[in-house]
Write a structure and sequence with these properties.
Layout lengths: L2 H11 L3 E5 L24 E9 L2 E10 L7 E3 L24 E8 L1 H6 L4 E2 L1 H11 L7 E5 L9 H5 L1 E2 L2 E2 L3 E2 L1 H10 L4 E4 L17 H8 L3 E4 L12 E4 L10 E3 L3 E5 L3
């Protein structure tokens, strides 16, 4: 083992580096993506016991489960959106593994989202963040921290629908174009059920985070947890989706490695 890897393990063992789980526990009650009734629907998570140390299997416990690829804390691959359908290496089984370890920049929008569920992150807000924390590096995740993860145990509040649709925060068009064209990020992550805002169908183009990110071969993370435990910069994310053949996305365990507080 090289000194570099030994130092990493020693840092974790000595509590100089913290491993933070950014993943929600996935169960049958987890809020599910919902589309207009005339469209195809995502299956919720369901688990069926096969055996539990009984006559069906005396020494083992295991389950079958069914779910949509985009359930719980999950990863979006470029093939998920029409703009990324023709790109090379666009599905979860072909994404380069080196893309699954990357730095993270966390943009704190909690007060904004508390005031306005339809809050849109702008390019100007990102530039203000950069003036304080430094330039967003190429190949980084940009994570929008809104506090939405606190709603996860209340599916109605998490989805936040009314008579005109869903109300959740997300990025605006110029924000996404800036991250793709000017900062060459790896992807965009949120605590909400989608990387786009709940009213993003009204933007031009509709769902700009999906359209521009995936059209540029970049990725999405949704339903993240514990973003309040990450510093604005300095964390490294581990984001390996299941290797599903031609998978458009996958639930995953998102882990962050951060320096311990001084």
């Amino acid at each position: 083992m090289t000194d570099l890897l030994q130092d990493l393990l020693a840092g974790i063992a000595a509590d100089k580096l913290k491993v933070i789980d950014l993943t929600h526990t996935l169960g049958p009650s987890f809020p599910q993506l919902s589309l207009p009734p005339e469209m195809g629907q995502a299956l919720p998570y369901r688990s069926e016991e096969i055996s539990r140390y009984d006559g069906r299997g005396p020494a083992w416990y295991w389950n079958n489960f069914t779910l949509c690829e985009h359930t719980g804390t999950h990863f979006d691959a470029p093939i998920h959106w029409v703009s990324g359908r023709e790109l090379p290496n666009n599905s979860v089984d072909t994404i380069p593994p080196e893309h699954m370890i990357a730095p993270a920049c966390v943009i704190d929008c909690t007060e904004d989202a508390e005031r306005d569920a339809d809050f849109l992150l702008t390019r100007e807000r990102l530039e203000e963040w950069e003036a304080e924390h430094g330039r967003i590096p190429a190949g980084a995740w940009v994570l929008m921290h809104t506090g939405w993860a606190r709603r996860v145990n209340d599916p109605v509040a998490f989805q936040n629908f009314d008579e005109i649709g869903q109300h959740t925060p997300g990025p605006d068009v110029d924000c996404v174009r800036f991250l793709v064209d000017k900062r060459d990020v790896l992807g965009f992550g949120t605590e909400t059920i989608g990387t786009d805002s709940g009213q993003a169908q009204r933007l031009n183009p509709p769902y700009p985070c999906h359209y521009y990110m995936h059209g540029a071969g970049k990725y999405g993370l949704q339903c993240l947890n514990n973003l309040d435990r990450l510093p604005p910069t300095g964390a490294v994310l581990f984001t390996a989706p299941l290797k599903l053949e031609e998978g458009s996305g996958s639930p995953l365990r998102v882990l962050a490695l951060t320096p311990a507080p001084a």
